[in-house]
Amino acid sequence: MPQFVILDILQRHGESKMSDLAKSLSVTTAAMTGIVDRLVREGYLRRESDPKDRRIIKIRLTAKGERAVTQILEKKKQMIIKMFGMISQGEREEYLRILTHIRDHLKD
Questions:
Q1: Domain count, the chain
Q2: Low-confidence ranges of the chain (pLDDT < 50)
């Protein structure tokens, strides 16, 4: 699961420093390095040096990583459509009302 979260973050932001990714997942930089190493080996990510500061390494999605995120998000979307297709319009409206109520309380 942390692997998908990393892929998703990078798809939304384009690139990230290792330390920023670690903060996003509330893990150590060492733990993040292990996860990123696997994703790089598998061809989902690549490391790039920052041209302004060669000490900084940025992480980016590869084309394979982009495809993986797109496929996973599409499967997730289809699953949600299927799940909500099994309940009535009234149940969907009630679910939305409850979520809206919770959101409004969280804003306070």
A1: 2
A2: none
Per-residue pLDDT at 108: 75
Cβ count near 61 (within 10 Å): 23
Query: Both 7 and 57 in a single domain?
Result: yes
CA distance 60 to 84: 34
Q: Which two tokens stand for residue 69?
A: 């995120």
Q: Which two tokens stand for residue 95?
A: 């679910």
| Alpha-carbon gap, residue 50 to 53, rounded angstroms | 5
82 and 56 within one domain:
no
- pLDDT value of residue 6: 94
CA distance 76 to 68: 12
Q: What is the pLDDT of residue 57?
A: 87
Give the separation between CA 5 and CA 24, rounded to whole angstroms.
9
- Return the structure tokens found at 98: 């409850």
d(CA 46, CA 10): 11
